[in-house]
Amino acid sequence: MTPHDETRDGKIKYGLAAWLLGLPLPIIIIALLWGGCTNW
Hints:
Elements: H1 3-22, H2 24-39
């Protein structure tokens, strides 16, 4: 395996981890805003 492949694989894993961590954020924000609006 060449270093280029290793860095590319690392970027793919880092991007996937960031996507998995970032994916629920908009859903949580929408849920909080929606719940806050209905509770007022």
